Amino acid sequence: MSGSRNVRLYLCVLYRLGMLCARFDDRECLLQSTAGSERYALFHMLIVLIAALASFIYVCLRPQELYMGIYNDTGNYYELINIRSFCIGLCLLHLCLYMRRQRHIELVSRLLRLHRLCTDAAMERYFRRNFNVYVALAVLCLVNYLNGYARAGLSRIPTLLYIVVYLYSFSAMCLLLVFFVCLQHIVAAGLAKFNSQLVENISVSNCKHLLYKRHRLLDIVAVELIACFGVLVLPIVPLVLFLAPSGPLFLISTVMEGKLKQPFEYIRYCITSCLWNIPWLAMITFMLRSNVITTEANKTAKILAKIPRTGSGLDKMVEKFLLKNLRQQPILTAYGFFALDKSTLFKLFTAIFTYMVILVQFKEMENSTKSLQKS
Description:
Blueprint: H1 5-16, E1 23-25, E2 30-32, H2 35-61, H3 73-99, H4 101-118, H5 121-149, H6 156-200, H7 204-243, H8 246-255, H9 263-275, H10 278-288, H11 292-305, H12 313-326, H13 342-374
Helix pairs in contact: 1-5, 2-3, 3-6, 3-7, 3-13, 4-6, 5-6, 5-9, 5-10, 6-7, 6-10, 6-11, 8-9, 8-13, 11-12
């Protein structure tokens, strides 16, 4: 079935990374858990857990080996906190994916069947474009980490540790974010179809039937989609929050303080510092700006509000729906902790800026302390 070929691309990569281990049945348009996929899911989860925990232990026991000579003490301490946090985050992410794998498979299967009914060429191009952007940002991540850590005065093992942990974290976490946005668009396409059918035939029976189907679809979003993917977003956003100031802090602490003497080295580190966090922030911005479900859900209220009053049972049904719609809470949340919309994006960037200012203040305190000790 060619209509789902780009969705299959996501499913294939998710399977290879051990995050959604199930075989795609093209004829039935669903995911099936097999004995082989179960073994692969367990094997991959154990490999990631062992590698992440071993990295965490290594960082805790031998932090001096991860000390970067071109950085200051504040920056090195901040980097140690980040690498430990990402090791723990990878453990939690893969444990959650493995323990809830059947629930994830069932949810994605239901949305794939909906996608078969509502697919169009524009949506498939959108999915493909998102995947290409994700791949391009992953390559940018690799180039940044090679430029940054490979020339930071570290030995081979710490260099590989930084590059592998951060690159795999981006590959796994941001793929989930992109796939989450794709699932949102599938739900939005289902809502758009119900809205178009509502416009074509406004009657008591048709309206009641379509509003019931709409309610069931939004229940999937409010319960299953948030439980399966909203809870995964919960640790990813704080990790990006902690990591985001690293690029500007490195630019201030190293490049602007004249620690780099070679002109070419100065220019290279300036470019790397400016591009350092673009992949992570681009993925978070992409995910939080996607409010297609809320937009399509609100269109239903606009359609019903324009219906002329007939004095029939349809009027009471419409009034009840509109009253309920006025009290509607945010549809997509990170397991109820915060809404996944543009308001959270603004708060996130505000927190990143505040966090960066605090780190710069710590750096200035460190410089002042060293000056006093020298005098």
